[in-house]
Amino acid sequence: MSETIEPVAVAPATITRWLDEGDVVLVDVRETKEYDLEHIAGALLMPLSSLEADLFPAVTDKPLVLHCAIGKRSAAAARMLIQAGHTKVMHMEGGLTAWKSAGLPIEEAIEDLAETAKVAPLFLCPTPGAVLREEYLASAGLDAAGLATEAGVSVSCIERLLAGERAVDAELSLRLARYFSTAADFWLQLQVEHDIERARHFIGETIRKSVRPRAA
Q1: Which residues, including other chains, have CB under 8 Å from residue 190's CB and lie 6 or more apart?
Q2: How far apart are CA 65 and CA 12, in angstroms?
Q3: Residue 12, Cα to own-chain centre: how many angstroms?
């Protein structure tokens, strides 16, 4: 059995320097809807869901840096490309979340507010359930019932989490972290980021207008 080669994870600060110097090409492996909502200027869109490593085009002679939302999909895509024989492939550590946390610029969609009000809001930060479903369950070969057994919780708990009907609490975060070998607060942090983004959509502007920052 051939040994899996782990792709190199590169910090956003290093990547932005490489981009400024024209040394790499940035590839976004998220889905089209995610890219349309926000993306890094100049990034090429090649969704992981439709990526065929054996047919991956030689878009450039420069090294490729893949990125997704938090670094899971980009790492998986990089492994696929490396196993298919592509040698100049890296991925962004922490994904777009880390990029934004570093204060680096992104391009956001500008939507007509009247039209947006007619539909349910789209959140830039996915629910923990969405991350679990899209980035962990498939790779582990599990469904809701299988994960429930492994994590020691009820099937309805996992089903509601996947459907976005249940929030992650401290105990569930510890159970998922133990099984998937993540940081203990990883799943809680996903929940916090989603909740804050959701609050911004619903009441962020109201809070900005009604609450005055405390004077120094």
Answers
A1: 70, 125, 126, 127, 128, 131, 168
A2: 10
A3: 14
Q: Which residues contact 211 (CB under 8 A, 6 or more apart)?
A: none
Share of the chain above pLDDT 70, in %: 87
**CATH of range 8-108; options 2.60.120.10, 3.40.250.10, 3.40.50.300, 3.40.50.2300:** 3.40.250.10
**Exposed, middle or buried, 108 (CB in 10 Å: 0-12/13-18/19+)?**
exposed
Give the pLDDT confidence score for residue 216 in this predicted structure. 66
Report, as residue numbers or ranges, the catalytic residues: 68
Q: What is the mean pLDDT of residues 30-50?
A: 87
Coil/strand/helix, residue 8: strand
